[in-house]
Amino acid sequence: MVAPCNSMGEPFSRSFKGLIVWCFLLSLTPCSLAAATSNKTRSHHFYKWEVEYMYWSPDGLENVVMSINGKFPGPTIRARAGDTVHVHLTNKLHTEGVVIHWHGIRQKGTPWADGTASISQCAINPGESFDYRFTVDRAGTYFYHGHYGMQRSAGLYGSLIVDVAEGEKEPFHYDGEFDLLLSDWWHKSAHHQEVGLSSRPMRWIGEPQTLLVNGRGQYGCSLAARYTNNSSLSQCNVTGHEQWAPHILHVDPNKTYRIRLSSTTALASLNLAIGNHKMLVVEADGNYLQPFETDDLDIYSGESYSVLLKTSQDPSQNYWISFGVRGRKPQTPQALTILNYKTNSASKFPLSPPPVTPRWDDYAHSKAFTNKVKALDHKTIPKPPSTYNRRIILLNTQNKMNGYTKWSINNVSLSLPATPYLGSIRFGLQNGFDQTKPPESFPEQYDVMKPPGNPNTTTGNGVYMLSYYSTVDVILQNANALAENVSEIHPWHLHGHDFWVLGYGEGKFTKADERKFNMKNPPYRNSAVIFPYGWTALRFVADNPGVWAFHCHIEPHLHMGMGVVLAEGVQRLPKIPKEALSCGLTGKKFMTGNNLG
């Protein structure tokens, strides 16, 4: 049964046996999801969305943002595990295509709904529509974002929350909930950035001006100016400025709140801290963790977490919530908001300054946090296979090609084809992409601690063809960039799967490093970071027929070629909707009447 929409494209969801009553979040005051459905029923949530540009002031300075139905960020999707989500998306942009990726949703049986241009589908042309239909098979904290050009930088993103199925319970208790979507914001447009990255020589627009929390930030002033001796920094006056006033978290004393965190940043790695409060980390990327307590939390682009917060501090005070930049020398101020105990006014300032973000290059701090992230148990998280069928080692390097700056994997910079891989592979169109097998590793003599001796690279769009249901190890190997003594953080995201993060290490990976693997309780995730000059070991099972992107989630890096493409079991798929393949070689075949069934 398809639920009707209101005029804004928001769903009035109706299950097979009852009505789901939705609570809406006002000023981030928590609400709960009430359901009048019987046990194990499944709902169909229908949304009608239009994507277009509009004027907005995310940080107090008016700019152009990408919006969905006039909203920035886009509307939050909320469903239960097992439900079907149907988004009818119309491109109201006048001069560019669009797709939306449902980050963390594995798209089992619906790879054409993954929302990756040139991989799983054609870009949706101006004035055209596309129907995304997929099942959200697992509870967790997710989000969605544009996956065409640099539309994530332009503001095309929103939250996607999946609650547990009817009759099931989370392995932890909480009294209320908040959803915080984190992003970064430039005053120059995504088009400026894209042209600069593609120029010879590269022209970098610099670090983002502002960090946004649920699409809101403050530029040119600070909510905490009164705590500094900087006379040039003014105190923000956000009264009456709804678009960029901070979202305040209103809480009751002596309660437990779940804070869902998702990072859709295009560049920045972030650190979260809450004044005078500790957090209990319980979920990452839709999978439960062994709970652990922390004073602050690092979150990289593409990651999501849930933390539990106990409101056990002095209820006559308010407390700062701060987000600061990690992994890059920060030129972007902290994002700030307030944890407001409702026993006093939300306008009351905290007694102390905001928490100080750990130094940007304190990687020991970051690694200590990362190594605490472990799977809850094998009842909720599958146990990793004890061995692998294939190992692929992916060297991450910065390179040059004819004067252009590129990011490469095993000295190949990804350049996507005109025909989506899903169609080319399914229908044997060998001219659709490079049939040369991409390299499985890199030369043994390569020194990852120094700039490349030969900085030149090549472009390609070959595919790693994986045997269906095989176990695959991927070793992500970091290295020195073009400049001496520079190695950047790279958060990698795998579409269509979760993987076990078996371990992290320093320097070049060797066979002996397998002794360091955590085979007992490795976290099960869809995103993982490689630290500077280090390696990260992943293992996954190729059990989801389709063609899948695997890439650095820093948007400029992906734009400059930092990604690979994996394929498995494509011939096992049912009929692919022709709307997904109406461009390139598959589009020509449809036009000539050839059956691609």
TrEMBL record:
Any one GO CC term of the record: plasmodesma
The reaction(s) this protein catalyses: 4 L-ascorbate + O2 = 4 monodehydro-L-ascorbate radical + 2 H2O
GO molecular function: copper ion binding; L-ascorbate oxidase activity
Manganese among keywords: no
Annotated keywords: Copper, Disulfide bond, Glycoprotein, Metal-binding, Oxidoreductase, Repeat, Secreted, Signal
Matches recorded under CDD domains: CuRO_1_AAO, CuRO_3_AAO
Keyword Heme in annotation: no
Example of a GO biological process term: negative regulation of defense response to virus
Every Plastocyanin-like domain range: 51-163, 180-343, 450-569
Places the protein is found: Secreted
InterPro entries given in the database record: Cu-oxidase-like_N, Cu-oxidase_2nd, Cu-oxidase_C, Cu-oxidase_fam, Cu_oxidase_CS, Cu_oxidase_Cu_BS, CuRO_1_AAO, CuRO_3_AAO
Signal peptide stretch: 1-34
Cofactor entry: Cu cation
Family indicated by similarity: Belongs to the multicopper oxidase family.
Function text: May be involved in a redox system involving ascorbic acid.
Name under which the protein is recorded: L-ascorbate oxidase
Organism annotation: Populus tomentosa
Species lineage: Eukaryota, Viridiplantae, Streptophyta, Embryophyta, Tracheophyta
